[in-house]
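anyone else get weird line breaks when pasting these?? whatever heres mine. first is seq + tokens for prot A
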Amino acid sequence: MASIPDNYRDQLSWRWRHFALFSGPEWHRVLNLRTAIFVVEQECPYQEVDQKDTDSWHLELSYDSQLIGTLRVLPPGLSYKECSIGRVAVHCGVSATRSRTRTHEVGAHIL
């Protein structure tokens, strides 16, 4: 697996928090990214938002203050007997910053 160059990795910031700790604008950023990936890019016109988000923990990955990746961890019993990971999204948009995220396999790093 290709690794992110040190100078790029040093500029990544991670944030781990429960849904209850998000402000409205912060949660909007997460939903905006997930919708851009799952609904627009992957052309999956399905309900992206569900009640499981409110009981989950969320990991955000930012580069240069831009949200470029996110995932959620669902507690045991919410979807499965064990805890589970879902809604893994890494942006590859048109900007130079975002297009580098998939080149450097940021999705693998976020997992």
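and prot B, same format (seq, then tokens)
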Amino acid sequence: MVRQTLYIPNSLIPGSQIRPIPSLDLGNPGIQVLPDRERASKVGLSAAEIGTTLDVLLDGVKVDDYLLEGEEIDLVLKGQGQVLRKTQDFDHVMIYTPGAGFIPLNSVSRLRLVSGPAQINHIEQHRAIVVRIIPPLEVSMEKAMKIVQTEIVDPLLKGRGQGTAY
């Protein structure tokens, strides 16, 4: 869908330069965690809770803002840093469950090696990319913005969740 959408601006504004940010190069290795919903529910976890737990353990999660000497700082919840040197180490990451205490991640999920982008951006927890469009000199920025808004953005937003030609 994204790659198809990238060709649209050039057909609407011929000669424009188009660049997705981050790059759509999918040559970087990654790990996809596929929760086993049945096994997870038996120990009191949902798929979302598995995801949040991994976020906390790997990168930390902002849980609140804290005012310190007049300056607002992010309060981040972060795991103690289990050492993950190889992809196989993810199978043995210990997570806490309400029903069974600490268990290895692989007891409630399956890991799959995938190729993906070097960077994944999110807007309100949904994956997102920025498409930078530089119109040719003969097209004003105002005209280019109007074309992008009416011909690309509005149809995408209108069809969100329903599938669109884009």
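btw re prot B: DSSP finds four helices and ten strands in the chain. Helices lie at 2-12, 37-42, 47-58, 141-158.
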